[in-house]
Design a protein that fits this description.
The chain is mostly helical. It has one domain. 80% of the residues lie in helices and 0% in strands. It is built from 10 helices and no strands. Helix 2 crosses helix 8, helix 3 crosses helix 7 and helix 5 packs across helix 7.
Length: 206
Amino acid sequence: MLYLQAFLIGFIISFVGSIPPGTLNLSVLQLGLEGKIKTALRFALAISIIEYPYAWIGVEFEHWITSNPSVVENFRLITAIVMTTLGVLSILQVKNPPATTNKFRESGFRRGIVLSILNPMAIPFWVAITAYFKAHGWIDLSTAGLVHTYVFATSLGAMALLTLFIFLANKLAHVVKDSMLVKLTPGVILLVLGLYAFWNYFSEIR
């Protein structure tokens, strides 16, 4: 049950977290629109592979942070601040999305690896999200097996969404680029989780 829970949380959060338009997923989307399915799949596979070590680093860094006594004492407050901040920043980026490459050239696995390595934003995301779920007892990462199950699921979640982008490119391109609801969803989820953490924290200190 613990393994299934770790897998589902990792998969779902990674799937949702890959929605906001960025250099990597928009590049995959463009390849899908151009009909370069094999190249797009190789590119998506490279992104998913790099997601694994970045998520693992995030989990390990979160463990190091929470091993500090002064951090543990205010853990719920810290996670509330981090989650709320990430949510607000994500929502603000909808109006000012990250710049994409000028013209995406023919590319595949190697280019996907390089661009993914140069885009390590997954690390702070997984630090915050892992800390949040552990603080509320929704996930157990007490063994190496549970950690790698969780991290492996993050790779699969990213690959699943990118594959959807590729095969439904004509429809998803319009939805992702023009729908404010889709763009705002990840940020709103993070913001709600952060506010919920604030509510729990202040409820306990009353």
